[in-house]
Amino acid sequence: MWCNPGTCHNSSNTIVDRGAGRLRTALRVRLLQHTYRPEELVAAAARLCYSSSGIDEIMEGLGAENAAGFITMLTEVGHESPVEHVSFTFGIEGVSRSLLAQITRHRIASYSVKSQRWVREGQFEYIIPPEIDAIPEAREIFLEAMREDQKRYDALADLLYTRHLEVLKEKGKPESEARREARTRAIEDARYVLPNACETKMVVTMNARSLYNFFRLRCCNRAQWEIRQLADEMLKLVRQVAPNLFKKAGPSCYVLGKCPEGKMTCGKSKEVQEKYRELQ
Ligand SMILES: Cc1cc2nc3c(=O)[nH]c(=O)nc-3n(C[C@H](O)[C@H](O)[C@H](O)COP(=O)(O)OP(=O)(O)OC[C@H]3O[C@@H](n4cnc5c(N)ncnc54)[C@H](O)[C@@H]3O)c2cc1C
After folding, report:
1. Residue 87: strand, helix, or coil
2. How far, in Å, from the CA of 126 to the mean position of ligand 1?
3. Exposure class string for 140-160: b at 16+ Cβ within 10 A, else e
4. What is the position in ligand 1's atom list of the atom closest to the CA of 102?
5. What is the 125 CA–ligand 1 centroid distance (Å)?
6. 191-200 pLDDT, tens per residue?
7. Is the dihedral of CA 263, 264, 270, 273 positive or negative?
8. What angle do CA 28, 93, 192 make, to 5 degrees?
9. Which candidate in 28, 120, 218, 239 is catalytic?
10. Average pLDDT, stretch 155-162?
11. For tag attachment on the chain, is the N or C end more exposed, with fewer CB atoms within 10 Å?
12. Residue 209 and residue 249: Cα distance in Å, rounded?
């Protein structure tokens, strides 16, 4: 699809605090693009499975209303493969490298992530966990760590750059090429001291079936607050463009009608189910 800048769906906020050397950022998610008429395409795939229609007829007469009927039928019989035909691409920023490690565990997806090898963190931005932010003493320790990390990163990047430049020039590399290579080699090693809190940006594409799995696991109270917040924003966005496909999507307790987590349950499944019935 067709989500041009004027029609793309946005969620959440932008940078919340850039004052006095504090570069705290907040989640921002945008649905950049999705399969054209996703619900009708899923319905067409279902129609091919369950009727005598050939490919010339399966899209005929399909509109939002009868698509909803096919989707309900697929949900009731647990036939999930037709929803793999539609995919959704999100632009995500204001998330930590910790979140990156978690989201990329979802293998049925495609990712493009801001590179710390090629982009120097002139003044890196960071995500501060709300529970650290809420305690002034903890926040001060955290902010001090961010300032120290930045100093060490800058010092290492500068030292490595100088050393690499010397060696490359000694080897006879032309000045501009030597500078470019020295810069890249310096920042790709200096980044090892950057923290998990460091902000990153990514483009993520998942098909609807993979999103169902993602929402089941990551909207759940057992998931960490940051990826749960992201999953909620993604769910709100896809519900706007494909309400029938995603009205039953959410954490396991909402999908199944009861919590499957046994002893690990948060004990709040009624409250959680209510939240995801209402979420928009
Ligand atoms: C609360 C929580 C805590 C977690 N804690 C940890 C932890 O402590 N340590 C840790 O390492 N991870 C942890 N994880 C990550 C978790 O183990 C999964 O790696 C992650 O949630 C991705 O889920 P997935 O494999 O279902 O997704 P995807 O990779 O998108 O896979 C989707 C589905 O495809 C199928 N599939 C994909 N690949 C294979 C395969 N190779 N073989 C067979 N079937 C496959 C499976 O059915 C799978 O559910 C945690 C996740 C959550 C939600």
Report:
1. strand
2. 26
3. eebbeebeebbeebeebbeeb
4. 15
5. 29
6. 999 999 999 9
7. negative
8. 150
9. 218
10. 96
11. C
12. 10
From residue 214, how far is each of 83, 171, 206, 233, 268 by CA, in Å? Answer: 14, 50, 9, 12, 20
- Tokens coding 32: 């950049």
Q: Give 172-212 pLDDT, tens digit per residue.
A: 999 999 999 999 999 999 999 999 999 999 999 999 999 99
**Residue 195 near residue 123, CB atoms below 8 Å:** no
pTM assigned to the model: 0.90
- Where do the domains of the chain lie, and which CATH numbers do they carry? 28-116+199-278 (3.30.1360.170), 117-193 (no CATH)
Atom of ligand 1 nearest to the CA of 223: 1
Helix (H, G, I), strand (E, B) or coil at 263: helix
Reply yes or no on whether 218 is catalytic.
Answer: yes
Task: Extract the tokens encoding 275.
Answer: 């939240």
What's the pLDDT score for residue 2? 30
Which is the closest atom of ligand 1 to the Cα of 108?
30
Which pLDDT does position 18 carry in this prediction? 45
Q: What tokens does 236 get?
A: 């709100």
